[in-house]
């Protein structure tokens, strides 16, 4: 930089939006530095005190330093543990990514989708579609990212490329399964009236929100719209397994419902939770789990349903037999 006068810099510290002179015990306080002509660079040495995350900003009376000028310091207990955390991340990413294929392969081998509940499939594709819209929008749109940084000046975009790839891949896998339902034997199975009503309500909510956001951008920001899509995804995650559990119960069988899908989903969920705890320990950041319980709670809920499916498949309905279950509409017409 071109200096016309000496520039004195002092440092500020914090975890999120508010920066103060308190280092919060994470590092030794950094000394003030002064830039004098012709020196335009300075070296500073940082000594860590404890594990955690710290934002380091700066201020000066001579030059304008914005909130966007900051350093993010991450202090880990163990670099070796970080390697294991990354390995675990790839394990659950791969497990979740391939968890769609056992059901697709089973349908293809049987030339039948009897046993796969259509309510689950309908809710699943809507959920993954909303998840993909959120990820693609936040990852690829500079406008949305500016809105995000306006709310979280020192934040990090919470979407990575693998999140985008996973969401889009999940939608494609669900579409393949839907096409199988159109061409393979399906018996009397159909999407239930209750699920159609739920999907219509959610779809109408998203449609109205999207139209309002596109036509009156100042009243409903794009980032807020994307959060609406993410909330729909969270709601669907809470309820989407219930129809399949009840369907297996009525049939007294899991024939046609791939246990491979469940085992891979269970593996992904377990390793995801393990990574969350390892990250919390390594960076002394337990508020990432218990301070924002949504992700943690959904992970526990997903594993809970996986355990129910495992019990149904391996203990309750071990025999490869099943009862034919009519749709609710057919039951009411008789």
From TrEMBL:
Catalyzed reaction equations: L-cystine(out) + H(+)(out) = L-cystine(in) + H(+)(in)
Gene Ontology cellular component list: lysosomal membrane
Classification via InterPro entries: LC_transporter, PQ-loop_rpt
GO molecular function terms listed in the Swiss-Prot or TrEMBL record: L-cystine transmembrane transporter activity; symporter activity
Mode of membrane association: Multi-pass membrane protein
Location in or out of the cell: Lysosome membrane
Major subcellular location class: membrane
Database matches in Pfam families: PQ-loop
Transmembrane domains' residue ranges: 87-108, 120-139, 159-184, 193-214, 226-243, 255-278, 298-317
Keywords: Glycoprotein, Lysosome, Membrane, Repeat, Symport, Transmembrane, Transmembrane helix, Transport
Similarity section: Belongs to the cystinosin family.
Function field: Cystine/H(+) symporter that mediates export of cystine, the oxidized dimer of cysteine, from lysosomes. May play a role in the degradation of engulfed apoptotic cells.
Name used for this protein in its record: Cystinosin homolog
Organism: Didymodactylos carnosus
